Every structure is written in C-alpha cells, then in structure tokens.
Amino acid sequence: xxxxxxxxxxxxxxxxxxxxxxxxxxxxxxxxxxxxxxxxxxxxxxxxxxxxxxxxxxxxxxxxxxxxxxxxxxxxxxxxxxxxxxxxxxxxxxxxxxxxxxxxxxxxxxxxxxxxxxxxxxxxxxxxxxxxxxxxxxxxxxxxxxxxx
Length: 149
Prior knowledge:
Layout: H1 6-17, H2 41-44, H3 48-88, E1 93-96, E2 99-102, H4 113-118, H5 123-128
Antiparallel strand pairs: 1-2
C-alpha cells in the first residue's frame, strides 16, 4: 500500500473541513445525518391539513425546479451570445431603451493548501486557518417512474 505524501494528507484534511457558509441563518437545524432509512412523511405528519400542504408545496417545488433548469439553460446560451456581442463591440456599460448592459471582468482569489505547503507553511497551520461552518440544504426530488421511463 502506497503511503500518501504530506501534501496529499493535508489536502485531504483541508478538503474534509472546508465548507461554505450557511445561506439560511436563524432556522432550526435539521436532524443529524443517520443511516439511509427514509420514513414516509405520512408516518411523521398526522395532521391531514399539514400533510396536504406539504404535498402541494413539494409538487409545486418540483415543477418550478424543472422550469428553472430549462430557463437556466436557455439563459446561459443567451448570456454567452450577449457577451460575444458586447466583447466584439467593446461595450462595458451601455443603455438600451432603459435596459442596462454591464460587461466587466473581476478577479476571484483562492488559497490552495498544496501551494502553501510548497512555500513551507506547516500543515497544522493550514488546518488551524481553515474555517469549518455548517449549512443546511433542502432538496426536493420527484419520485422515479416505476415503469422504467
């Protein structure tokens, strides 16, 4: 069995602890992750009105997600076409009958643990400087069609 290098071990340790900040503050935390035993909501919610409300909201969420995916795909293609035209005509900021276009570049900086290691930064310093936060996500998925479609 091959022994991992210090850089590989540090990269794995940093990756395991690095998470994005929560985008939904001040909400009750979901229960901790457990084994993949998924109970039926019908066994968890006994109030008929709440059960029906949840069904309606989940169905609407699934429908809107499908529309959003399709719109996002179309929007991405349109965005690329607009960028091409704006770049061709060197448009940075302009007005078109009240609608505005603003095409600009921006930098994004990231700190890479492996490069820090190469510069002599100790792995424990990298780990101490790595902030871990917990975020909560909600994912609603449509039931799979049993007919194989």
